[in-house]
Amino acid sequence: MFNEKVRAVLGARALLDDNDPTITQKWTELIDLLSEDEGLTLDFLKECSKTEISFLSEVFEDVAYNLQSKKYIELLYQLDRRYPDLELKRHIQIAEDYMG
Q1: pLDDT band at 100 (very low <50, low <70, confident <90, very high)
Q2: Dist. CA 39–CA 100, nearest whole Å
Q3: Which among 75, 76, 57, 42 is positioned nearest to 10, based on CA atoms?
Q4: Is the pLDDT of residue 21 over 90?
C-alpha cells in the first residue's frame, strides 16, 4: 500500500514539466509520505528504479530533516554508488546538513 501511494505521486510528478508551479504540491506529498515511517521508506528506496531515485532526489533533504536518520543517509550513499550517473552526492550532503 505504501509503495503504491508513493509510486502514484511519483508518476504524477513525472508527468509535470520542471517549471510547472504545481510541482511543489507533489514534492510536499512525497515528503509527507516518505517521512511517515522510516522502515517503509528505507524498504521502498532499496527497490526503486533509477528513474524513481532521480525524481526522489528532489526531496532527499526534507525527508532527511524529518526522519533524522543515519540509516536513511547511509542508504542514500548506497544509491549513489548504485547509480553514479545520477550524481546524488550533492543532494545527500545537503540532506546530511539538514539533519543538524
Answers
A1: confident
A2: 21
A3: 57
A4: yes
- Alpha-carbon distance of 35 to 13, in angstroms, equals 18
What does the mean pLDDT of the chain come to? Answer: 96
- DSSP of 30-87: HHHHHHH-HHHHHHHHHT--HHHHHHHGGGHHHHHHHH--HHHHHHHHHHHHH-GGG-
**41-58 as b/e, with b when 16 or more CB fall inside 10 Å?**
bbebbeebeeebbbbbbb
The answer to whether 55 and 10 have CB atoms below 8 angstroms apart is yes
